[in-house]
Amino acid sequence: MQIQEAIKHLRENSKKRGFPQTVDLIINLKNINLKDPSNKINKEFVLPHGRGKDVSVCVIGEKEEINKDMLGELAKDKKRAKKIIDSYDFFLCEAPLMPIVGKTIGRFLGPRGKMPKPIPPNADKTKFVELAKKSVRIRVKDSPVIHTVVGTENMKDDELKDNIEFLVRKIQETLPKGRAQIKDILLKLTMSKPVKIEVK
């Protein structure tokens, strides 16, 4: 099924819910040895048309909610640290504080794939936050499956198509053997059954 045909099918054959459902992309991989650390993937990509919904971004910095002092406090309070980390989708950090983040809460951020992106000195934080809000994180750790959001059903078909094609292309470029390691590609809404799609 072509991408736009699949989007139309999902819209027409899914029950209306009391919330805007996300559009999820599932990519099943093949011939990839995940015991080899070099084959594991943990990357962020900025979608051309964003995710279609709000994404929570936390900035760690000297004058931010999470500052140097709070990092020290969180290092001693595992439960509080995990609660805060789980409440955000992405983390950004002023570059000078990155080593402190690593020493204090890095052990909580790392396993969740949420290590912050550094913000260079004197850079416009707003731009970094806006890019993070349009980003998705792709992780391949123990299972040869990529499952990520590409938008919501409130978005236009063309926007969803662009996001899907962009992400599949980026994933192909990331895989050691490219397209040869993609078994199949599926598309679904939050509460729908998946449909197989063809992406050129």
Describe this structure in words.
The protein has seven helices and nine strands. It has 200 residues and is α/β, with parallel strands linked by helices. The protein folds into two domains: 3-53 and 135-197, 2-Layer Sandwich (Ribulose 1,5 Bisphosphate Carboxylase/Oxygenase), CATH 3.30.190; 57-132, Rossmann fold (3-Layer(aba) Sandwich). Strands 7-1-8-9 form a four-stranded antiparallel beta sheet. It is globular, with a radius of gyration of 18 Å. It starts with a helix and ends with a strand. 26% of the residues are buried.
List keywords for this structure.
Ribulose 1,5 Bisphosphate Carboxylase/Oxygenase; 200 residues; three-stranded parallel sheet; 34% helix; 9 strands; four-stranded antiparallel sheet; alpha/beta
Q: Summed up, what is this model?
A:
The protein has 200 residues and is an alpha/beta fold. Helices cover 34% and strands 26% of the residues.
Write the SSE topology:
Layout: H1 3-13, E1 22-29, E2 41-46, E3 57-60, H2 68-76, H3 78-86, E4 90-94, H4 98-104, H5 106-109, E5 117-119, H6 125-133, E6 135-140, E7 145-152, H7 157-174, E8 182-189, E9 195-197
Parallel strand pairs: 3-4, 4-5
Antiparallel strand pairs: 1-7, 1-8, 2-6, 8-9
Measured by DSSP, the beta-strand proportion falls in 25-35%
The CATH architecture of the largest domain can be named as 2-Layer Sandwich
Distance between the termini: 11 Å
Class by SSE composition: alpha/beta
Number of domains: 2
Radius of gyration: 18 Å
**Assembly state (oligomeric):** single chain
Question: Could you name the CATH homologous superfamily of the largest domain?
Answer: Ribosomal protein L1/L10, rRNA-binding domain
* Biggest sheet overview: 4 strands, antiparallel
Output the CATH class name of the largest domain. Alpha Beta
Q: How many beta-strand segments? A: 9
The strand order across the widest sheet is 7-1-8-9
Task: State the share of residues found in helices, binned by percent.
Answer: 25-40%
In the predicted model, the low-confidence regions spanning at least 5 consecutive residues are: none
Compressed to H and E, one letter per element, the order equals: HEEEHHEHHEHEEHEE
Kindly state the mean pLDDT as a whole number?
94
Q: Overall 3D geometry?
A: globular
Q: Under CATH, the topology of the largest domain is which?
A: Ribulose 1,5 Bisphosphate Carboxylase/Oxygenase
